[in-house]
Amino acid sequence: MPLDYVAKRIGIFFLIVWLAATINFFLPRIGGKDPIRDMMIQQAALSGSVQTGLEEMVEIYNEKFGLNRPLWQQYLTYLGDMSRLDFSYAITNYPLRVSDMIMRAMPWTLLLLTTTTLFSWVLGTLLGAFMGWPRAPRFLSYLLPPLLSLNAIPFFLLGLILIYLFAFHWRIFPLFGGYTQGTIPALTPVFLRDALYHSILPALSIILVSLGGWALGMRAMMITTRGDDFVNFADAKGLKGRSIFLHYAIRNALLPQVTALALVLGQLVSGAVLVEIVFQYPGIGTLLYQSILASDFNVVQGVIFVLIVSIGLTTLILDLIYPLLDPRITYRRA
Prior knowledge:
By secondary structure, the chain is mostly helical. The chain has helices at 3-30, 35-47, 54-65, 71-83, 98-131, 144-151, 155-169, 189-226, 229-236, 241-266, 268-271, 273-279, 284-293, 297-325. The chain is flat, with a radius of gyration of 25 Å. The mean pLDDT is 81.
């Protein structure tokens, strides 16, 4: 691969990260909310007393977090911190650091979404490949309508339906949470079993919705591939249907699926925001939602910056390995 192309793509990656990070800095401040003042007023309301010296405390916290400085100075400080992956302290949960809060929530989201995404991709791709192959069992054709119907339902809406049926009505699974309240998270068999039990409904909502999309995409590519010359030539040579299916049809139809999978994996964290909110799952989505409600600029900026970098890196890696996935793709000049 030409080095100038690699350098160009890396430069575009940093440009996109900078633009997105800039928007990420200014958007939370457009609303004009004062997170320090709101936090102080909320604490005073919870204590049931009038907070004395409120303005002095607000000024101290504003100075601590640099919110009393001009906006352009805050922006330069923000860029410097982001370049070092230093997200500072959480405003509404001081003295917790934003990086610590993200690291606590990230494993929950990654385990849930990575498992469900890969499982739905593999199963949906296999189903779509068989559905688009004329010699596949006939009963598979009856699976497409229900899968497409489920695919039209948003994650969170199906999650609400599952909660009503399996948690509220039949009481088979818990209503919310990632583990039983009062339990201390630890890598023990008892806790892992409890966490798995709580993750079944959110995982099921993601898998059922995603299956139809993966199956439909793979089915369309298989139908297109069936009419290509190399498949007809392999059939004319007398190759077995299994060999044509595995080594010719699926292999060439997989490229768009791999592309879509890479983009979905890059957006794993952002894709579960509403699902985690519905199930009150202790992941990145719930953390982002709570931080937006509290106008905690530092946490919102830290979470969204992680999303920006993950999506940008995934797209960059995918672009660079495309020639390895399909030798017909080349970035060399003719």
